[in-house]
Amino acid sequence: MADQVAGLLLTGGASRRMGREKATLRLGPGGEPLARHLGRLLTACCSPVLEVGGGRSGLPALSDSPRQGPLGAVAAGAAALSSVGHAGPALVLATDLPFVSGALLAALAAHPADAAVSVVPLVGGRLQPLCARWSPGSLALAAELVAAGERRAQAAFFGASSFLALSPEDLGSLDLARELEDLDEPGDLRRLGLAEGPSSS
Using alpha carbons only, what angle is made at residue 110 by residues 106 and 111, rounded to the nearest 5 degrees? Predict the structure, then answer.
């Protein structure tokens, strides 16, 4: 286990386009709720692991403010990690990524890049900050950006903090584009072959 890399599972947000809470969607008929599944994967490669959102994963949870977007959730999670004595990097994972594998999370957590450098997948020319290892500097920058009115998670990597962008080729046999398919609206559930209804947590 990468004991010096914490985990933050982001389960908040209004889910307006989906029309239902993404964290409680099941991975196929009779499957495990998405937040619980992703929480288990994070716990296998990170410590400590916290949920920022509605308490859907079974992990220790803290609330966030939907009005501050994903960057606000990261900032809240970073503050909570600091309060329990964690000063290292954190693997940040959004709850709307149903195909993320334990292998990808483990590769990000254990990447040999210096802990002062964020490790961020790059798919189709776009950084993927909501499945990435954030450095302590990027985590600290999140709070500053939120205070300035920023909401986009990507903004933390266009400031003073250093980051390493990982292309699909850098991750070998992992299908990065598939793993980072996200759920935004009901049509995505049909397209990806997942159940359409929410589940109880």
Answer: 115
Mean pLDDT in residue range 19-30: 64
What span, in angstroms and rounded, lies between the C-alpha atoms of 157 and 154?
Answer: 6
H/E element holding 44?
A: helix 34-45
Q: Over the stretch 48-106, which tens digit does the pLDDT of each residue have?
A: 999 999 888 999 999 877 678 899 999 999 999 999 999 999 999 999 898 899 999 99
148 vs 24: CA distance, rounded Å: 32
Architecture per CATH, domain 6-191, reads as Alpha-Beta Complex (3.90)
DSSP 43: H
- 124: burial class by Cβ within 10 Å (0-12, 13-18, 19+)? exposed
Q: Is the peptide bond before 98 cis (omega within 30 degrees of 0)?
A: no
Q: Pull the structure tokens for residue 20.
A: 């239902």
DSSP string, 119-139: EEEEETTEE-TTEEEE-HHHH
Residue pointed to by tokens 């010096």: 4
Distances (CA, A) of 104 to 128, 150, 172, 188, 201: 13, 28, 10, 22, 25
Whole-model pTM: value is 0.87
pLDDT tens per residue, range 98-142: 889 999 999 999 999 999 999 999 998 999 999 999 999 999 999
Q: Where are the domains of the chain?
A: 6-191
Q: How far apart are CA 45 and CA 108, in angstroms?
A: 9
Q: What single DSSP character describes residue 67? A: G
